[in-house]
Batch of 2 targets.
Target 1
Amino acid sequence: MIRATTLVPLLLTLVQPALAQEPGPEAGKSFFDVVKPEDLKNFCIFRNEAYSIGAFSCEGRQANVCAGPNDPPPPGINNMGRAYWKPQKADQGCTQ
């Protein structure tokens, strides 16, 4: 009990300066406000969220990896010079 009563005030003194910091100039802005339009081609977009090249996602049992704009797309897909979601085998971790 004595340890707890001395540990709590110590933790509060360490946390208080971190909470008192002012937010940076990017605070309150979304990803799309910060990234230049010409750089968006290097990100995959899903549900209005940006993912970097190499990001892995699962939608149901379908696995996808964010492929770069220079990666060859599968037949029938035109990536138009942008990053795109490339289907992968679902054995890479997509289980329900």
Note: The CA atoms of residues 69 and 81 lie 5 Å apart.
Target 2
Amino acid sequence: MNATTPCYYECGICNHYHPANWDGDCRDDENRLTFDQIEAKHGPDGWDEVPMPDTGEPIIGKGFFHSVGRPGNKSPRSNCR
């Protein structure tokens, strides 16, 4: 991974991928992607997967919102574009 590599995480809430620095509603179609969509956009070696951000809350029953800015988020998003 380098500063120009787009990064995505697999969401444990909606089971799709979101851009690593995205913060919003999982129903946002522009930021909810399948693995195949990412591969078609960037190719198999043109992107990196990073861990899902720690929401600080249990996922079950919390709806479709999560934040990358919660305390305890240790994922390497600073290296992503």
Note: The first strand starts at residue 7 and ends at 10.
